[in-house]
Design a protein that fits this description.
About 45% of the residues lie in helices and about 20% in strands. By secondary structure, the chain is α/β, with parallel strands linked by helices.
């Protein structure tokens, strides 16, 4: 079997079971996939040095080797905080109003991708499969080809791909998309994001797309398909059954004092629709005064990307909004929103999910959303909770039995909460069984196998 080389912006060593909750969805998924392969995970260490040297730090944990490099502060400012998170992230999440186009960001993005390519190329052996991840490293395949790498190389995008009419607002958008043609396989989370990419290729590059997923532009042919990512279902079930999860479940249940818990778990990011969620919950309290004091919203939102001004603004606005709602509706023995700005471990989250009557997962736009799948996996089969899910999350295409809502509509969120609270047990069980079957079957191992099998079948 070929060795698998995974390349991503950051490297997170696989963690022991029960300690993975602090990692992002990508890190958890790749840790699970790499446990099945004797491979190498390459990326940025998260540390900076005054001058880039290309020195590699090797480590090994749980059968997975990692190789990391340090970047210069200018690299981080221009490549990570700049082009990746101020330009591509908002644009790919349909927030063209927040996208910043700065020439220095673009040059830094190209420079860091070149440094990744030059450093990792000597580590790649002739039979290795190379799997590049996410929007930080779109040009990396092209840079590796220029370094002489002829291996099969795949690319997977974990976030949405925007419609052509939005992408064309990006300076040098053609150059960015053409660099993707250096890959052998391109993967997207959903058919919707795939169709947006195909539309761009046909409209802007004059290419054409075959029914089998092959995309042709000039003399280059690339396979593109949707591969929805899943959770490590077996591992998460172990977390749900752990003493730590039972303790967390009991802790939340006791503190609820007979009230229903509505839970949301999201990074502090404008794409997650937290302000809209709070406003929808507020509308529910306004329209259903008989429910006040009988439930509360637990919103867990650990901060992210503190170096980007937009995220500090988000935190300030949510602090103000949650405080205003609590001030308006709270009683001496009840607070409608418990707003927590810290992360929790995997076992704690599993216990919190189990204790929650409703999960309110309402991103404005999301590539997939693994929290929705974790909530389903954590439920008691005999008395499951209800998942309220944004129709604009990639997971909505798989979890069709969730209560799908429009996160931009306060009324729709309010109506979904009311409907969830009134749902008969038989219907809750039926919906949960259908969703759990999908989450269990289409897990992270299935995702990895689908993509890697396609990469193995590809031929340059």
């Amino acid at each position: 079997m070929s060795r698998l080389i995974v390349i991503s912006n950051r490297v997170a060593a696989p963690t022991p079971q029960g300690e993975g909750g602090a990692q992002g969805g990508l890190a958890v998924a790749l840790s699970a996939a790499l446990r099945e392969y004797q491979g190498l995970w390459f990326g940025w260490s998260g540390k900076t040095v005054e001058e880039f040297t290309g020195d590699i730090e090797f480590a090994r944990h749980d059968g997975v080797s990692s190789a990391t490099i340090d970047l210069e502060p200018q690299d981080v400012d221009e490549y990570y905080n700049g082009y990746a998170n101020r330009t591509l992230w908002p644009l790919f999440h349909y927030r063209i109003d927040l996208a910043e186009y700065d020439r220095s960001f673009g040059s830094g993005y190209e420079r860091v991708n070149e440094r990744f390519a030059e450093t990792v190329a000597p580590l790649i052996e002739p039979d290795d499969l190379v799997w590049v991840h996410d929007y930080h490293l779109i040009p990396l395949g092209s840079q590796l080809r220029e370094s002489g790498i002829r291996n099969r190389i795949g690319f997977f995008l974990h976030i949405p791909w925007p419609p052509a009419r939005l992408l064309t607002s990006l300076p040098a958008h053609e150059r960015l998309v053409l660099s993707l043609l250096a890959y052998d396989v391109i993967g997207f989370q959903t058919a919707e994001w795939l169709e947006s990419f195909q539309n761009y290729v046909e409209r802007e590059l004059g290419g054409h797309c075959d029914a089998d997923g092959t995309i042709h532009v000039g003399d280059r042919s690339v396979h593109a398909a949707a591969y929805p990512i899943g959770i490590d279902y077996k591992e998460f079930q172990q977390a749900v059954a752990s003493p730590g999860a039972h303790e967390a479940c009991s802790r939340l249940t006791e503190s609820a004092a007979g009230r229903h818990t509505i839970i949301g778990v999201d990074r502090l990011d404008y794409s997650k629709g937290l302000a809209e969620r709070f406003e929808g919950y507020r509308r529910f309290l306004e329209d259903n005064d008989h429910c006040r004091g009988k439930l509360f919203l637990l919103q867990i939102a650990p901060p992210s990307r503190g170096e980007v001004d937009t995220y500090e603004t988000i935190r300030e606005s949510l602090d103000e909004l949650s405080g205003r709602i609590n001030g308006e509706y709270a009683e001496v023995d009840w607070v409608p929103i418990r707003y927590v700005n810290q992360g929790y471990g995997r076992e704690d989250l599993a216990g919190f999910y189990r204790a929650a009557k409703i999960a309110l997962i309402t991103p404005l736009r999301d590539g997939m959303n693994l929290v929705a799948k974790e909530y389903v996996a954590a439920q008691d089969p005999d008395d499951p909770g209800i998942l309220i899910l944004s129709r604009f999350a990639g997971a909505a295409l798989q979890l069709k039995e969730a209560l799908l809502c429009n996160p931009y509509s306060k009324e729709d969120i309010s109506d979904s909460i009311r409907r969830a609270l009134a749902m008969p047990k038989e219907e809750r069980i039926r919906r949960w069984r259908a969703m759990n079957e999908v989450v269990e079957k289409q897990d992270v191992v299935w995702w990895r196998k689908c993509f890697v099998d396609a990469l193995e079948r590809s031929r340059r």
